[in-house]
Amino acid sequence: MSIKYEVNVPVTSDQFIELLRESTLGERRPIDDRDCMEGMVKNSNLMVTAWNDGKLIGIARSMTDFHYACYLSDLAVHREYQKKGIGKRLQIITQGELGPKCKLILVAAPAANSYYEHLGFKNNPRCWVLDREQNIGS
User: Fold this and answer.
1) Average pLDDT over residues 96-107
2) Mean of the per-residue pLDDT values for the chain?
3) What domain range is 111 assigned to?
4) N or C: which end of the chain has fewer CB within 10 A?
5) Which residues of 58-88 are buried (b: 16+ CB within 10 A; e: fewer)?
6) Is residue 134 part of a domain?
7) Does residue 113 belong to any structural domain of this protein?
8) SS3 string of 15-53?
9) In this prediction, what percent of the chain has a pLDDT beyond 70?
């Protein structure tokens, strides 16, 4: 198995959706909302990908200013390739693209807490989420 890692190479919405379906993230992402998925791919400014024979098998999709904060929105690895160090490598390459003081921030699914702790992330209970459906100020 020869895995090739790339930074900011084009990824189609179909490739992204297929990878999410074949990883645990498909359950928590709007994979049936084509416009949303296309926007997620188009508007990310840092994507590190893993490929095997031209097939997308892993992605670290982020939004960042490269100096202070990087939000790692999606870290997904195809089920058949999990537990081979691909997710860790995607995260390491992502960090390598950032400035020395840039924090890598993510929101983990409860089942993934031990995985991120193993990678060296520290739990921070100060994350807040405001869903769009909620009326601000009411």
Assistant:
1) 92
2) 88
3) 3-118
4) C
5) bbbbbebeeeeebbbbbbbbbeebbeeebbe
6) no
7) yes
8) HHHHHHHCCHHHHHCCCCCHHHHHHHHHCCCEEEEEEEC
9) 90
Q: Is the pLDDT of residue 135 over 60?
A: no
First to last CA, the chain: 54
- Number of C-beta neighbours around residue 14 at 10 A: 13
- By three-state DSSP, how is residue 118 classified? helix
pLDDT in tens, 45-90: 999 999 999 999 999 999 999 999 999 999 999 999 999 999 999 9
Spatial separation of the C-alpha atoms in residues 14 and 30, rounded to whole Å:
13
Entry field: residues in the chain = 138
The CA distance from 128 to 107, in Å, is 10
DSSP category for residue 112: G
Instruction: Give the count of domains, the chain.
Output: 1
Name beta bridge partners: 95.
none
Residue with tokens 């929105």: 73
